[in-house]
Amino acid sequence: MHPTAALARLCPAELMAHPKNAHPRNAAERMRPALPVDLNLPAALAEPQQWAARLRRRADGTPWIGVCFVCLGNICRSPTAEGIFIEQMKHYPRREQIIVDSAGTSGAHQGAPADTRSQATAHRRGITLRTLSRPILGPDFERFDLLVAMDRSNLGYLERLKPEGSRAHACLLRDFDPDANGERDVPDPYYDGDAGFERVFDMCWRSSEMLGSWLNAVLSADETSS
Ligand code: 4NP
């Protein structure tokens, strides 16, 4: 299937038509639209060049970046964000340089697959969620560069857990949402109906897409500076 057809099947129609995503240069760019100028990233994320300078490298010199999506239970929101990101990444030219995972601030559901409602919502958009819940732990701050929290409560937990001297950075997924309009959280859908899961999917889709563009900007800044 042509990548654009796949996007049309998976992506909300309004995102396809989003003026911020106009004028893609090629198929890969269509899957990974440029960062909108009004994304208004927090200062710590606003300079991809600075991030390029801190990337770790494999033995052959290739830079890589580790991203872990984090919610409370690791059964609804972060598995959805991870599954979407993995799907979108298939079209990224630098996908081999990105490590992705997800975890929960609670271990209450450890070992459990994604919630059946999250699985059903993702399945309707052609995405299979393959996670088994696990808690986020101190060593994750060594494994990952960017810990992407679903809400401010998760973010606060990550900031308290962060070991002294860790260079990992915790942020919110909706820092990357071009349609956030000041909202900061991906709301917990656990006690919601199906509509809540659909809303979470759409937020995760468009935020994850811009996160992918940001990661590409970081990795390509490394190429231009080296
Ligand atoms: P998640 O959703 O944090 O998006 O995985 C939840 C999952 C489980 C519970 C709450 C939220 N719980 O209370 O068990």
How would you portray this structure in words?
- The chain has 226 residues and is an alpha/beta fold.
- Helix content is 40%, strand content 12%.
- The protein is built from nine helices and five strands, in the order ααααββαβααβαβα.
- Strands 1, 2, 3, 4 and 5 form a five-stranded mixed sheet that branches.
- Helix 5 (77-89) links the parallel strand 2 (63-71) and strand 3 (98-104).
- The relative contact order is 0.19.
- Mean pLDDT is 87; it is low at 1-26.
- The protein binds 4-nitrophenyl phosphate.
- 4-nitrophenyl phosphate binds at residues 71-77, 108, 188, 190.
- 4-nitrophenyl phosphate (4NP) is lined by residues 71-77, 108, 188, 190.
